[in-house]
């Protein structure tokens, strides 16, 4: 059963916004006292919080599907819908957040840091909020928008001052147990450590953390053993401590060869461009297990060669605690220097205000060729959000959408792109909203009268124009005159005669 997880994929679904309400206030002696539909509530956000008390992503490994609360719908009498409750997810300090494609979103490397990783949907406006001096009684409301839905990747990179690296069974777990209060699993077989262990060391007035990383072997940077899987935990360490086993009985191994192999694997591991390469960081060497007589002799023999290469070397024993005090203070000195250097190089963040460009219209129109002619695709956060907020079962709501698009300048841009009446227009990526564009839809709906919830511009039974009525009247008069002339011709030809009594009366 897993007890430590440092990489997990979360499936997020933020809450949807509530729909606005369509309502008309009715009181005694005031049957139509005006619109009073309330706004819908916003959906709940999903927030990541870097908690120092959390050390693993195990809880998310077991429950990767995360949902926040939806917003409530608006109601009559100006009652607003409730806002969905935000969902706060506690993650370890040092968690890197990426999208599904592996692109970095944020780095939770500061305790107490909060990031809204999945924003909730926006609540729709009720008809009371949509009322104006020209549209006094809207018969529609805006729908709530959908909350964020997608996957993110959480990758934990341990925040420690010193990382212990070395071959399996070199004594790293025993060393961290001897230096700190950590109690990792210790055994006499390789790969006993299956996940990083953290320990806190107090050396004089300096307190620092050390991380025990699972053992490295040759080829770790290519995926052999467990080293590659956990080398990410070394990225953020100030210094590296090479723990070398001087009492190994494996053939072909010696302290110098072991060190060269570990250095080669560290050099092959890529680190982010904004971080110092692993081999350029301060490195110390601990020749472990000198409590064994033969190991003591071997340590005394290889120590001069290591010091010639520029390393500070300490002969230690995690069992007898020999040399641990000197090692702990030496590590504290290196850590303190690293902290001072980081403080000196700290860059004060500069807040840059980037005003919106004068020619930025908030949308763009892309012309796409098709078998039936050009297709004009409208892209932009505003148009796409407005489409999502529109109730297409309500004619007045559709007319309101047309007015918003016209005021934004979509109609003018379509003309410039070469669109004509009947051209296919799509709003949004993919299928989106597809419709045949009619430029006449840009007339102001506020100046039209009609029942609530209707828009005369969408009525297919259009009223006849004056010219059409005039032409129809002339056609009718011409038909009547032609009928009279036909009767006269038939009478003159003797086909029928007028009765004498009727003729006398006339």
Automatic annotation (TrEMBL):
<feature type="binding site">
    <location>
        <begin position="288"/>
        <end position="291"/>
    </location>
    <ligand>
        <name>GTP</name>
    </ligand>
</feature>
<dbReference type="InterPro" id="IPR006074">
    <property type="entry name" value="GTP1-OBG_CS"/>
</dbReference>
<feature type="binding site">
    <location>
        <begin position="191"/>
        <end position="195"/>
    </location>
    <ligand>
        <name>GTP</name>
    </ligand>
</feature>
<feature type="binding site">
    <location>
        <begin position="212"/>
        <end position="215"/>
    </location>
    <ligand>
        <name>GTP</name>
    </ligand>
</feature>
<dbReference type="InterPro" id="IPR006169">
    <property type="entry name" value="GTP1_OBG_dom"/>
</dbReference>
<dbReference type="InterPro" id="IPR015349">
    <property type="entry name" value="OCT_dom"/>
</dbReference>
<comment type="function">
    <text>An essential GTPase which binds GTP, GDP and possibly (p)ppGpp with moderate affinity, with high nucleotide exchange rates and a fairly low GTP hydrolysis rate. Plays a role in control of the cell cycle, stress response, ribosome biogenesis and in those bacteria that undergo differentiation, in morphogenesis control.</text>
</comment>
<dbReference type="GO" id="GO:0003924">
    <property type="term" value="F:GTPase activity"/>
</dbReference>
<dbReference type="Pfam" id="PF09269">
    <property type="entry name" value="DUF1967"/>
</dbReference>
<feature type="domain" description="OBG-type G">
    <location>
        <begin position="160"/>
        <end position="336"/>
    </location>
</feature>
<feature type="binding site">
    <location>
        <position position="173"/>
    </location>
    <ligand>
        <name>Mg(2+)</name>
    </ligand>
</feature>
<feature type="binding site">
    <location>
        <begin position="166"/>
        <end position="173"/>
    </location>
    <ligand>
        <name>GTP</name>
    </ligand>
</feature>
<keyword id="KW-0378">Hydrolase</keyword>
<keyword id="KW-0460">Magnesium</keyword>
<dbReference type="GO" id="GO:0005525">
    <property type="term" value="F:GTP binding"/>
</dbReference>
<feature type="binding site">
    <location>
        <position position="193"/>
    </location>
    <ligand>
        <name>Mg(2+)</name>
    </ligand>
</feature>
<dbReference type="GO" id="GO:0000287">
    <property type="term" value="F:magnesium ion binding"/>
</dbReference>
<comment type="similarity">
    <text>Belongs to the TRAFAC class OBG-HflX-like GTPase superfamily. OBG GTPase family.</text>
</comment>
<keyword id="KW-0963">Cytoplasm</keyword>
<keyword id="KW-0479">Metal-binding</keyword>
<feature type="binding site">
    <location>
        <begin position="317"/>
        <end position="319"/>
    </location>
    <ligand>
        <name>GTP</name>
    </ligand>
</feature>
<dbReference type="GO" id="GO:0042254">
    <property type="term" value="P:ribosome biogenesis"/>
</dbReference>
<feature type="domain" description="OCT">
    <location>
        <begin position="355"/>
        <end position="439"/>
    </location>
</feature>
<keyword id="KW-0547">Nucleotide-binding</keyword>
<dbReference type="Pfam" id="PF01018">
    <property type="entry name" value="GTP1_OBG"/>
</dbReference>
<feature type="domain" description="Obg">
    <location>
        <begin position="2"/>
        <end position="159"/>
    </location>
</feature>
<dbReference type="InterPro" id="IPR027417">
    <property type="entry name" value="P-loop_NTPase"/>
</dbReference>
<comment type="subunit">
    <text>Monomer.</text>
</comment>
<dbReference type="InterPro" id="IPR006073">
    <property type="entry name" value="GTP-bd"/>
</dbReference>
<feature type="region of interest" description="Disordered">
    <location>
        <begin position="450"/>
        <end position="474"/>
    </location>
</feature>
<dbReference type="InterPro" id="IPR036726">
    <property type="entry name" value="GTP1_OBG_dom_sf"/>
</dbReference>
<dbReference type="InterPro" id="IPR045086">
    <property type="entry name" value="OBG_GTPase"/>
</dbReference>
<dbReference type="InterPro" id="IPR014100">
    <property type="entry name" value="GTP-bd_Obg/CgtA"/>
</dbReference>
<dbReference type="InterPro" id="IPR031167">
    <property type="entry name" value="G_OBG"/>
</dbReference>
<dbReference type="InterPro" id="IPR036346">
    <property type="entry name" value="GTP-bd_prot_GTP1/OBG_C_sf"/>
</dbReference>
<dbReference type="Pfam" id="PF01926">
    <property type="entry name" value="MMR_HSR1"/>
</dbReference>
<protein>
    <recommendedName>
        <fullName>GTPase Obg</fullName>
        <ecNumber>3.6.5.-</ecNumber>
    </recommendedName>
</protein>
<dbReference type="GO" id="GO:0005737">
    <property type="term" value="C:cytoplasm"/>
</dbReference>
<keyword id="KW-0342">GTP-binding</keyword>
